[in-house]
Amino acid sequence: MNEMKYTDDVLKKVQEVELSILDDFIKICEENNLKYFTVSGTGLGAIRHKGMIPWDDDIDVGMLRKDYEKFVEIANKEYADKYDIVTAGMYPDCTIFNAHWSKKGTAFRDRNALNVTYPTGIFLDIFPFDNIADDDKAMHKQGKRAWTWQKLMIMSLNPKPVLHFGKVKNALITAVSYIAHFGLKILGFTPEKCYQKAMKYLRMYDDVETKRIGFFCGTQPFTTIHARSDLDPLEEVEFNGRKMYMPNNMREVLTNLYGDYMQLPPVEKRYNHAPEIVKFKDED
């Protein structure tokens, strides 16, 4: 499968839009005392590049669930003329369990989102971190069940997902998806029911002050977990000329993930795949 690459000009414009969205996000957080922190490659970019990784095309931030919900409420009330909030539960065919805060008048559509009904503008990724079990066995049970129900939600909507693996793996996953899709229909598991099941496990410790927090509904369930103490205090960091915050153990996390994370990848790997459609607000 041929993947599109960005031109330098288009990537620069995408990054500029995302940074402008980030500025509004930070403004809301500062005005309402909401805690946020860098997630994934955004933390790496902050440390290694003092901003976005030059070839990256997204910004990822995390929030505790209560702050995340407060942000969504404020954004929908005060910024609805400028942005759309997109997440599972808001649109019947949306299966992402984080939020895309996307700029109205723009477009950013991957191949798997060409026919969706929800807004798909250039966006900021916002991840809600839930309380997760202190006991490792209970935590793995919680995470696997939440993750599985989210994947079943995807299969209940689409028997043939867009995949980017090798030919054999794509064929195997497609076969499993077809079986799951029609099996879920027969058993009466609608996308909404799958969503509710996933949320049940994600939020099963809402009323418990657990020692850990996590986001289970990514590509893998156990790669985005923090001790609560990692956020107390947060570490201030420079990000493209603005102030952001990251977990206080981010360097340790990056070392575990990448080893010498300050080492740049080979030149031939310094790129990102462009979406099928990119449109900016000043374009027809």
Description of the molecule:
With 284 residues, the chain is an alpha+beta fold. It has one domain (8-279). It has 7 helices and 11 strands. Strand 9 and strand 10 (242-246) form a beta hairpin. It starts with 7 loop residues before the first helix and ends in a 5-residue tail after the last strand. The mean pLDDT is 94.
Name a few traits of the molecule.
284 residues; alpha+beta; 11 strands; LICD family protein
Largest sheet: 7 strands, mixed
User: Over all CA atoms, what is the radius of gyration?
Assistant: 19 Å
Average of the residue pLDDT scores: 94
Ranges where pLDDT stays below 50 over 5 or more residues in a row are none
Which overall shape is indicated by the principal axes computed on the Cα atoms? globular
Q: Compute the separation of the termini in Å.
A: 29 Å
Fraction in helix: 25-40%
Order of helices and strands: HEHEHEEEEHHHEEEEHE
List the domain count as a whole number: 1
Task: Indicate the structural class.
Answer: alpha+beta
Overall strand count: 11
Protein name: LICD family protein
InterPro entries: LicD/FKTN/FKRP_NTP_transf (IPR007074), LPS_cholinephosphotransferase (IPR052942)
Pfam families: LicD
Organism: Kandleria vitulina DSM 20405
